[in-house]
Design a protein that fits this description.
This is Peptidase M14. One of its GO terms (cellular component) is extracellular space. Its cofactor is Zn(2+). Residues 30-53 are annotated as: Disordered. The protein has a 9-stranded mixed β-sheet, with helices on both faces. Strands 6-9 form a two-stranded antiparallel ribbon. The chain has a two-stranded antiparallel ribbon with strand order 7-8. The chain contains 10 helices and 13 strands. Helix 2 (112-124) crosses helix 10 (358-377) and helix 7 (293-307) crosses helix 10 (358-377). Residues 1-34 have low confidence and may be disordered. The protein is globular and about 55 Å long. It has a single domain (11-19, 61-391), classed as Zn peptidases (Aminopeptidase), CATH 3.40.630. It has helices at residues 56-69, 112-124, 129-137, 148-152, 162-168, 229-245, 293-307, 330-336, 350-353, 358-377, and strands at 11-14, 74-81, 87-93, 98-104, 138-143, 181-182, 185-186, 189-190, 196-197, 250-257, 272-275, 317-319, 340-347. By secondary structure, it is of the alpha/beta class.
């Protein structure tokens, strides 16, 4: 077995047993309360609000409960283990020919997406005509907590040293550590005793890539290496879905940004930024395996349009900065492999915003994801004019 392809045995962990259907969850949310004048907009410690977020053990219990209560509609499997041995779970609902894959918490202090994906599973497994129709049209696979080690210590990077990497990849013994290796203080987190990596720079558009010492330390506009068990698990899940469906129609990555960006040209604080562009394709033609920027723009617009509905309180949705070239991200790598890819950047991280506006932000993410699922399910995504993408307001 290649060291770069440590494929886990995929065992379904929780099978449905009870015939109890999951009650439908709502995507609506009440209007936002006024932003307090003293709202924090910088680095803040001691307000992570961790008890309000789902930790690793709670996630396992919640997924098990969902699978059991859904009467077979939701299945859960272990797709890998983190560096510290924690399970990485994927949940699946629906049996349609189109497939949407979504992940959250690749950065462990960006937790809103995890709650959104749990709520989404309840919505899609509900005994409603709309949910039943969606299950017939689309297959939805979600990884609610992709980086559980980082999540447990509430920080961006995973819990893995360069020595751990070399132990798994002896050919890297003479290589310099990867550029995204944290060994100091970042965003208030001390990596000196427990170093780690930004896992969202460890992806490579060649899904069969084997780490080579000459590719280190690398840099931000170069591909990553699949040197971490967390990124390997997502890569292998993606490859498995490609084999099953022919393609992964949509890949969604749920993140957080700073809490107090404003809409360009105004002073309204941004609820969430979206993007469908992550690479400069002219720089990566050797990896072009069906790159479809228009599809990514159409899916981004599907989320944006859903959040602009008349009954939506989420008016301050903006376009994430476009001048980036990141083939080493999951979004960039999977876009180069032909998937429509969309970035969600909801406001605030746990170290700077805590659990403030928690419910509303969870709903904003879920609603945007549902807009994409609906557009993929009925094929309407391809009818959206991608030219409207540039009309989304810029993030100031």
């Amino acid at each position: 077995m290649f060291l770069s392809r440590l494929r886990p045995t995929r065992n379904v962990l929780f099978s449905a047993g009870l015939a109890t259907a999951i009650a439908a969850s709502t995507l609506a949310a009440g209007p936002a309360g006024a932003e307090p004048d003293h709202a924090h907009c910088g680095s803040q410690t001691g307000d992570a609000g961790r008890p309000s977020w789902t930790d690793h053990a709670e996630l396992g219990a919640k997924l098990a409960g969902l699978a059991e209560r859904s009467d077979g509609l939701v299945s859960v499997e272990e797709i890998g283990r983190s560096n510290q041995g924690r399970e990485i779970w994927a949940a699946r609902v629906g049996a349609g020919e189109r497939v949407v894959l979504a992940q959250s918490e690749i950065h462990g202090n960006e937790k809103t997406g995890t709650e959104s994906l749990l709520s989404l599973l309840r919505t899609l497994a509900a005994p409603t005509p709309r949910a039943e129709q969606l299950r017939e049209q689309v297959t939805v696979v979600v990884v609610p907590k992709m980086n559980p080690d980082a999540s447990e210590i509430d920080r961006r990077g995973n819990d893995r040293s360069w020595a751990d990497v070399v132990a798994d990849f002896p050919q890297l013994a003479t290589a310099e550590p990867a550029w995204n290796y944290y060994t100091g203080i970042l965003q208030g987190d001390d990596y000196r005793e427990r170093p780690g990596f930004d896992v969202n720079r460890d992806f490579h558009p060649d899904l069969d890539y084997v780490p080579a010492p000459e590719d280190f330390p690398g840099f931000s506009a170069a591909p990553g290496w699949y040197i971490h068990p967390e990124s390997q698990a997502i890569r292998d899940l993606y490859v498995g879905l490609q084999a099953e469906f022919g393609t992964v129609d949509a890949f969604l990555d749920l993140h957080h940004q700073a809490p107090c960006y404003v809409v360009d040209g105004g002073d309204d604080r941004v609820t969430m930024s979206l993007s469908g562009k992550f690479v400069d394709i002219e720089n990566h033609q050797e990896y072009n395996n069906g790159y479809d920027l228009d599809l990514s723009k159409q899916l981004t617009l599907a989320a944006y349009d859903e959040l602009q509905q008349a009954n939506s309180p989420f008016s301050n949705i903006t376009l994430y900065p476009q001048g980036i070239d990141l083939p080493g991200t999951a979004l960039g790598s999977f876009a180069l492999n032909g998937s429509g890819t969309v970035l969600f950047e909801v406001r605030g991280q746990t170290h700077s915003w805590g659990a403030k506006q928690r419910g509303q932000l969870i709903t904003a993410v879920e609603r945007g994801v549902m807009g994409i699922i609906q557009a993929v399910a009925d094929g309407s995504a391809r009818e959206i004019d991608p030219g409207r993408y540039d009309d989304i307001p810029d993030r100031g």
